[in-house]
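Hi,

Apologies if this is the wrong queue. I'm a grad student, and the batch job for Enamidase from Bradyrhizobium neotropicale produced an output file that my downstream script rejects. I'm not sure whether the problem is my script or the file. Here is the sequence I used:
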Amino acid sequence: MAHDAPQATGPSKLVIRNIGLILSGALEKPILDGDTIVAENGKITAIGRFKDCNIEGATTIVDANGTTVAPGLIDSHVHPVAGDWTPRQNQINWIDSYLHGGVTTMISAGEVHMPGRPRDVVGLKAMAVFAQRAFWTLRPGGVKVHAGAPVIECEMVEEDFKEMAANGVKLLGEVGLGGVKDGPTARKMVGWARKYGIQSTIHTGGPSIPGSGLIDKDVVLEADTDVVGHINGGHTALPDDQIRCICEGCKRGLELVHNGNERSALFTLRTAREMGDLHRVILGTDAPAGSGVQPLGILRMVSMLSSLGELPAEIAFCLATGNTARMRELDCGLIEVGRSADFVIMDKAQHSPGKNILESVQLGDLPGIGMTIIDGIVRTQRSRNTPPAGKVPEVVAK
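Support response: The file is valid. Your script probably expects a header line. Output copied below for reference.
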């Protein structure tokens, strides 16, 4: 099992130099001018030209060798259980494998695969607090797993949400995977969650696991969760007219997942773009699931939406980084001063017909990952999962 990666034991200063392209993660300015990023004690302190940056006292220097630096990818929809193990596929080190796919942050949509998952109120609250505490203490490979997302049941009262929030719970699992499946009850409980600072998401579409059921547009719109979970189905999507109705009927997050209907994902993307609402679109995998574990799931979504959805690659990367960070109120996902120094360093894959990484992604190819960095600490170098990159970064001083 992958254990907690080493943390900085003293003051640290990271310098990434010789960058060929900086992807910001921000829709309003997806490409930044500069060839150097400096981070101190895990936070970005400077972005610009090497000659203008203070690199004195650097504890780690990375030569990007002309490659692309982007914010670490964020998976907005995962189902962790305990450590780096998933009983759904009986697989170990799946989170570490996602790190090799560029994912540095994960958001739990509920620890629903826990064997014997309790459904009583006392048990589900206890499990949520346990998961939140456990995953913030143990970070497999350094990945930040925001967990502790209880699946709500009809017997819950407002005091339960207040208690969970006071104990650090900040997320709800997918509404609809437990006993609450109707709009009025869901809306009441989502309101209680929001009152105490707990963010919510909802299962959308046909049933996925035993105990789940159809959640259609009427329930989604009435529940008014912060995120419309897998609007493209997990796996079974709603009809196009219902998806459009959801897009037009609320202003909440529209989550597209790898373990969903790809045609419906493209339909949602087109609809959001027509509405001028690309900022609402975020990406997840909805894994582990029956389809397995997809370490490259977020990269594959970026490539699919860019190539088949005719979305510029630099914009597609924003859906997997800055959009999610802003919607989920995270301090990562954007390359800007003050944010967490979480990066993925990439280049176009060897022999891709694209002239550069952006063109290769828009042609449908996956980039090759040469390094991941979390909190200013190098976590992986050449990815064991992506195609080999044309150029790779290297640590030149430490």
